[in-house]
């Protein structure tokens, strides 16, 4: 298996920037697409991992992930 490029992102500033710019994380993710998949690692201020996401290498795969995430999120907030 090929080693993924890891990209560390501080979660709090990342989401604050999205709010200020009125952008979704999916728009930013689309701008980060490369020929290879990348592992986005979201951390807190202490560099502790909060969650990670394997960024696909195509816009089509990204859109499928977005649809899946949206569906799962809607299911969670219903309960």
Could you please describe the fold and organization of this structure?
The chain has 79 residues and is an alpha+beta fold. The protein is 49% helix and 24% strand. The protein contains three helices and three strands, in the order βααββα. The protein has a three-stranded mixed sheet. The longest helix has 20 residues, at 59-78. The radius of gyration is 13 Å and the shape is globular. The protein starts with a strand and ends with a helix. The model has no long low-confidence stretch (mean pLDDT 93).
Low-confidence stretches: none
Terminus-to-terminus distance: 38 Å
Largest sheet: 3 strands, mixed
The secondary structure category is: alpha+beta
Helical segment count: 3
Q: State the strand order across the main sheet.
A: 1-2-3
Alpha carbon gyration radius: 13 Å
Counting DSSP E segments of at least 2 residues, the number of strands comes to: 3
The proportion of strand residues reads 15-25%
Overall shape: it is globular
**In percent, how helical is the residue content?**
40-55%
Task: Quote the average pLDDT.
Answer: 93
Helix/strand order, N-terminal first:
EHHEEH
